[in-house]
From TrEMBL:
It comes from Litoribrevibacter euphylliae. This is Heme utilization cystosolic carrier protein HutX. The lineage of its organism: Bacteria, Pseudomonadati, Pseudomonadota, Gammaproteobacteria, Oceanospirillales.
């Protein structure tokens, strides 16, 4: 199941996710897939970008104006349930995804699943 919301919610969602703890961020670019496991960094808005200030080496500058819509992705992946926020451009191209984290046994982090579903409910209203 996937639910889409307008991209102007990106900043609020990214600030929320920065408090979740360990997540997995996937960045797709030029046919390559980059994966980062760890806390999604806090950021601040300056010069038209959301500037990530990660303490773990994950940093960057997100052009939030390019985010047209955000999908709440809720589906099976390789036989396991997965939840992700998928940030898409106007052509429905994926800019990046942030997945609910997993513990050392590969199980979803329940506190993040709860927060994901709470956000899904809030934004569907």
């Amino acid at each position: 199941m996937t639910m889409n919301i307008p991209g102007d919610n990106a900043l609020e969602l990214l600030q929320e996710i920065a408090d979740w703890g360990n997540t997995t961020t996937i960045i797709l670019h030029g046919g390559s897939v980059f994966e980062f496991k760890g806390n999604f960094p806090q950021g601040s808005v300056a010069q038209g970008f959301y500037n990530l200030k990660g303490e773990s080496g994950f940093e960057g500058h997100l052009n939030l104006d390019k985010v047209d819509h955000i999908a709440f992705q809720d589906k099976q992946h390789r036989g396991k349930q997965s939840y992700a926020l998928v940030f898409n451009d106007k052509d429905n191209g994926c800019i990046f995804k942030i997945f609910v984290g997993r513990d050392s046994d590969g199980e979803l982090l329940e506190n993040q699943v709860t927060r994901f579903k709470e956000l899904q409910t809030i934004y569907s209203a």
